[in-house]
Amino acid sequence: MFGRKAKQTELTQDEQAVLAAFERIQQAMIDKDLDTLYASVTADKTFTHMSGKTQTKEEFLGEIEAGTLNYFEYKIDDPQVRIHGDYACLTSTTTLTARVYGFSGSWPLRTEAWFEKIDGEWIYCNKPNL
Question: Fewest 10 Å CB contacts: which of 35, 46, 71, 107?
Answer without folding.
Answer: 35
